[in-house]
Sequence to fold (342 residues):
Amino acid sequence: MRILGIESSCDETAAAVVENGTVILSSVVNSQIAEHQKYGGVVPEIASRRHTENIIPVVQEALEQAGMTLEQVDAIAVTAAPGLIGALLVGVNFAKGLALAKNKPLVPVHHIRGHIAANYLAHPQLKPPYLGLVVSGGHSHIVEVLDYTRFHVVGRTRDDAAGEAFDKAARAMGFPYPGGVILDRESQKGNPKAFHLPHPKVDGSPYDFSFSGLKTAVINLLHNAQQKGETVNVQDLAASFQATVAQILCDRFLLAAKDLGYDTLAVAGGVSANSGLRELLTKRCAQQGKALYFPPLSLCGDNGAMIASQGYYEYMAGIRAGMDLNAAASMPMDALDWERAF
Ligand code: KG4
Ligand code: ZN
Fold:
């Protein structure tokens, strides 16, 4: 079964064709990063406008690369939540038009479920149940992946998401948007033990995260130094920040794995590209004899292939959208209700 996946939830217009949820026949990602860079972050209206301009050529290229026509596609999957509402609506409307015109089934996909599915594209041996860590620009979840379409969130962030914390800390350190990637690169040149940063915990919720205090600690440290006329080695600060976030994520993820009895773990979302997180978690999982999966770097960020992959599993579970499908800026990943979410 070949599914066309369409993604437009943030600043990437993406489309891909995936066979049976696991084989990528094509994948095209048009990133708007360069344009948003001058504003220091994603400007929602600009994102929507660029999606509107780019969506047809991106989908056409994905079909061309797969050597297929739209008639040969078995279903159309689209990210319908969560994300920037104006951006999501472009993909949802376009997918609805295609489904209507070609009489194809339309499958709504939750973006975070899509991130998790990126691992099925690279690791066919990975099968639920397992414990997932999803760390992106908007989410930080520890989630039991009970089946391909059944999830139970056991830990979440109470404030900033991990990617958001990376981006805000990076901005304070003077790195351009998208800060997470640049902070990661700069931290390779720094000493991770140079600064001691807090490890904020959430009372009574051992698997939850709180990153805003950590971000504030970085901002205060920089302000204090500035007021005293001292210079801070930002590469050391970047390395210390990255090491702290990696440790917090690893500690809570591995604690949940131990308590809930999972020996198979998978990480997903933009922050799964982080070198510090990959290194620390790989080391600790090897010590504990746990199987660990990361998507390849090419599939960590937003892409259409992960949406097509999850779209396959949603389709197999009987999920279909009607022509009244809407988009939702937020929706829990473990309690989808496409009919009543809006
Ligand atoms: O999953 P994603 O592409 O989009 C969302 O669904 O949010 O995640 C984007 C986030 C951004 O905050 C970005 O800075 C972060 O992932 N990110 C990283 C790295 N690469 C991307 N954070 C830390 N280290 C990286 N290497
Ligand atoms: Zn994403």
Q: What stands out?
A: The first helix runs from residue 33 to 37. The chain has a mean pLDDT of 96.
